[in-house]
Amino acid sequence: MRRWLDRCEHALTLVAALATFSMMLLTTADAGGRYLWNRPILAAYELTTNYLMIAAVFLAMPYAYRQGANIRVTFLVERLGRNARLVIDHAVQIVSIAYCAALVVATFRQARHVLMTKTTFVTLDLPMWPAHLIVSVGLFVTTVMMLIDLREVRKGRSSLFMDG
Questions:
Q1: Would you give the end-to-end CA distance of the chain in angstroms?
Q2: In angstroms, how far is CA 64 from the centroid of its own chain?
Q3: Among residues 10, 20, 36, 59, which is most buried (max CB within 10 A)?
Q4: Alpha helices in 37-158 (DSSP H)
Q5: What is the pTM of this model?
Q6: Angle, nearest 10°, between helix axes 129-149 and 82-117?
Q7: Is 57 exposed, middle or buried (CB count within 10 Å of its CB: 0-12, 13-18, 19+)?
Q8: pLDDT in tens, 113-144
Q9: What angle do the packed helices 129-149 and 2-36 form, to 10 degrees?
């Protein structure tokens, strides 16, 4: 399972990096076309905000989680004893898993709703549901990673509590 997750994380990170690079190229080409030739690229803004930016953020979430890029306020927990800290760390991990899983369900339902209503861009006849599905995929892989890391909390090796 861990090997499968590593492959998923690697693939999603690669797609996120490609989305970031594509976003840079598209924005540069759009700005150049707009200001040099007075011919902007049709739907460049929509593609950037509704596909590429979402892919760059949500597909990179598993990588960010694995690297310990989480916001934490630790000044209180650091002053507690080992047992109290372990209980709090387990509670935080479980709440994080539950919250992320709830987001997976909600975003998947939203993607299904957008698919059923056949929602498209205003300027282009391009469906919106894949963008919503991208969010679900990134959150799902992150949730599975947190679930597997639940065993690592006792050993202090959960990515949720690593310093990035």
A1: 24
A2: 8
A3: 59
A4: 44-47, 53-58, 61-66, 82-117, 129-149
A5: 0.85
A6: 160
A7: middle
A8: 999 999 887 777 889 899 999 999 999 999 99
A9: 140
Q: Using DSSP, state whether 127 is helix, strand or coil.
A: strand
Q: Quick count: other Cβ atoms within 10 Å of Cβ 75? A: 7
Distances (CA, A) of 9 to 14, 40, 121, 125, 135: 8, 35, 29, 31, 14
Closest Cα to residue 48, out of 33, 28, 34, 69? 28
Q: What is the mean pLDDT of the chain?
A: 88
CA distance readout (Å), 13 to 6, 42, 47, 61, 160 = 10, 28, 19, 8, 18
- Residue 150 is classified by DSSP as G
